[in-house]
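Protein modeling request. Please complete all fields; requests missing the sequence field cannot be processed.
Requester role: graduate student
Desired output: 3D structure, token encoding
Chains: 1
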Amino acid sequence: MKALFHEERSLLSKTIFLVLLSCSLVFVDRFTNLTEKPKVLLSSGLYVIHYSANLPNNAFQRISSFFSTQKYLSDRILDLESRLLSLDIDLEKMASLIEENNRLRELLGSAAKLQDSVLVSEVIGIDPDPRSQNILIDKGETDGVFEKQTVIDSSGLVGQVIEVSKQYSRIMLITDLNSFVPVAVLRNNLRLMLQGMGMSEKLQLLHVNPTADIRVGDLLISSGLGERFPAGYPVGLIEAIDYVEGRPFVDVTVTPKSGLDRSQHLLLVFSENLAVVDENRQSPLEVSGFADQR
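Delivered output (294 residues):
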């Protein structure tokens, strides 16, 4: 019994002591600065413990955020690359359409300046035979196309219709080996014969006398002789004159004025005027302003 009573007194004494200590600490903390330094030290210690305890969680969050960001950036890059590729394709298509529109404007502008009636056509095929310089166009008998009809582009003479079907026609270009075009030198009206060489950018003058008044850069126009082509259309520029000693004729190379291997749209000429070019006649060349292209 005495032991139990002693134990209760001891517990009460401890309780009273702790209450008094607590009150003392509250008083000291409230009315003095003695606890400031211990509080700072204790707070620093607790911060270190708290920071250390959160290190694994912070590391996990950073790693997770890093990989999430990497995936987002990777997906974003792929999306932007796809959009860029699509825009590049659209830009190329737009540039192609603008170029085609400019060519059509030029072609229709030239057609408006001509005295002859014309029909716009589109090239739809090229003869695979390398020995021939033939193309197919999308206009035929139903459009009024006929054999031996003259074909031009915005720059000059292209060729002649040699075959007509219902829906399309075959054109022999002036560069074909079987093509012969009566021409005249615009500067002096000297009449000559021009033949194709089987190459898209070369023609040759036939039987040119060494004393003939021709110069490099002279513009050749269709003369209308033989009633094969209307008179006055630009045909080509003299590129080179080769005088070979002992030969009766000189070799003369001519570059076509028309874009034979580039033009996508052509003009079919409906002309009843096949008169020979003379010094007093105003030609389609002069009417359309092609003389400025020299």
